[in-house]
Amino acid sequence: MEPLTLHFVHEQVGARFISVGGREVVAGYGDVGAEYGAARDAVALHDASYREILRITGEDRASFLHGMVTQEVKNLPVGSAAYGAFLTVKGAMVGDARILKREDDLLLDLEPGLGAKVREFLDKYLISEDAELHDGTPDQAWLKLLGPRTAQVLAAVPGGPLELPAPLSSRKATLAGQEVWLLGTALPGGLAGVDVLVPRAGLEAVWTALVQAGGAHGLKPLGFDALELVRVEAGVPRYGQDMVDTTIPLEANLTNAISYNKGCYIGQEVIARATFRGHMNRKLAGLLLGEKDVAPGTELRRGEKKVGWVTSVVTSPVKGQRVALGYVHRDSLEPGTELTLGDGAGTVTVAALPFTAS
């Protein structure tokens, strides 16, 4: 397991660690409810330095990546970001990435454990283009501020104030003596924040500066477990949990990852055919579980027919019960539809995404 750069900083405040994709992650700091509450109502700081970064340089970097990913790259403005997916020729996902276009390179922000897989996929098609792939993970890392008081924290940092960028736009800044990039973020349901791209050598200085600036605004460190709570309530799938190498992006509701007027890319024919048909046989949906302890992978049935399976499960403060993401056959997607758990533990109810307060 690849340890976190800030392992000892987190250890000093009682962090509990887990492995995700072969990299060390802070699971939590002892009170998931308080961490979640800070993200929802104040501001929370998450060490996302376990995520992997792939850099692409060279004159042909934009045109090369444009043909490899579902999203627009060539006409993406410098300083902007977009979310896209990498597909096989059969339309199944190799992985997903947030793409940040800078003056001199393209950065791919990837799930932990996905860097080598995506690099191998891209390298297979890199033949004569002037483009080079570089592992950026050892040199740079992400920190995440999330919550309605994010702007106040940026305004209070030493050497600031820093301005909160709009979602998917970025700007350079200096924070705690480090040259950083600020990238605006937003989740379905309106929860906004900023991701801070930091030189890995400056992580501790930037983390400390953000913690100090956030003290007057209710900032708390945010572990992976609480971040998963926020993610699932927002209905956002995560590769490796809700998406795998047989998932077609339209099944996972990834319409925000697909450009329909960009021209050819690997897997485009499958996406175009499915779009023209007007439906997928199954789609990612919300599930209300009540108090049932349901494991990911549990089969969903309607009568005698298997109609899907569960992928992510959390206890949702918004819904006051356990909720899940899962794939459901298109004939059973209507919110309110009751499905039977394949393990015989009772029924669950299909719900719209994102999950919102009743």
Structure in words:
By secondary structure, this protein is of the alpha+beta class. The chain has eight helices and 19 strands. The chain has helices at about 5-10, 30-40, 60-65, 115-125, 150-155, 205-215, 225-235, 270-275; strands at about 15-20, 25-30, 45, 50-55, 80-85, 95-100, 105-110, 130-135, 140-145, 170-175, 180-185, 190-200, 220, 280-290, 300, 305-315, 320-330, 340, 345-350. Helix 2 (about 30-40) crosses helix 7. The protein starts with 6 loop residues before the first helix and ends in a 7-residue tail after the last strand. The model has no long low-confidence stretch (mean pLDDT about 95).
Q: What's the short version?
A:
This protein is an alpha+beta fold and 358 residues long. The chain contains eight helices and 19 strands.
- The Rg value, from CA coordinates, equals 21 Å
**What is the strand content?**
25-35%
* Strand order within the widest beta sheet: 10-11-12-9-3-13
- N to C succession of SSEs: HEEHEEHEEEHEEHEEEHEHHEEEEEE
CATH-scheme architecture of the largest domain: 2-Layer Sandwich
Could you state the CATH homologous superfamily of the largest domain? Probable tRNA modification gtpase trme, domain 1
How many domains is the backbone divided into?
A: 3
Percentage of residues in helical conformation:
10-25%
Describe the largest sheet: 6 strands, mixed
Sheet/helix structural class: alpha+beta
Class of the largest domain, according to the CATH hierarchy?
Alpha Beta
What would the principal axes of the Cα set say about the shape?
globular
- Count helical runs: 8
Provide mean pLDDT, rounded. Answer: 96
| Low-confidence region ranges | none
Extended strand count: 19
Question: How far is it from the N-terminal to the C-terminal residue, by CA?
Answer: 41 Å
